[in-house]
Write a structure and sequence with these properties.
Length: 148
């Protein structure tokens, strides 16, 4: 059986470690699931009124702990629905941190430790341009890419 803990999270989605940014811990005792649980995007009901301020969730299932960004919907008095989306950085943090990688390229010049001869450079000379109305005439579904 899985144990559930709700929190208010005061940080950004792109942060790997959430420690120090989780507030107002609320443990859900003996949760009852009806049917199968999709641990990548679980939706479950809790028989109590929950504050919509809770936006982060931890589910411990056997030996695995899953972390989620969640949304609370009060369905009726005494019944709240929790809709979750997996926090990949939190859930797989240990695996990510233990992955051995060798950085071969750096897309930005933020570190002097990684030399990249093919890194982007700043170019101040206009080579060609197309008026925006001409680009839009080709298709509504276009992506504009600039190359420097």
């Amino acid at each position: 059986m899985a144990a559930i803990t709700l929190y208010r999270y005061a940080g950004t989605i792109a942060r790997m470690t959430k420690t120090g940014l989780l507030y107002d811990r609320l443990d859900i005792e003996d949760p009852v699931y009806r049917g199968e649980i999709d641990f990548h995007a679980p939706v479950f009901d809790v028989e109590q009124d929950l504050s919509a301020a809770y936006n982060y969730c931890m589910i411990q299932q056997d030996v695995h702990t899953w972390y989620y960004f969640c949304q609370i919907e009060n369905v009726r008095r005494g019944l709240s629905r929790v809709t979750c989306k997996v926090d990949a950085l939190g859930t797989y943090r240990d695996a990510i941190m233990n992955t051995k990688v060798w950085c071969r390229r750096s897309a930005v010049k933020q570190t002097p430790y990684i030399t990249d001869g093919r890194a982007p450079i700043e170019a101040r000379k206009l080579v060609s341009a197309t008026p925006l109305q001409e680009i839009g005439a080709h298709s509504r579904d276009m992506i504009i890419i600039t190359v420097g």
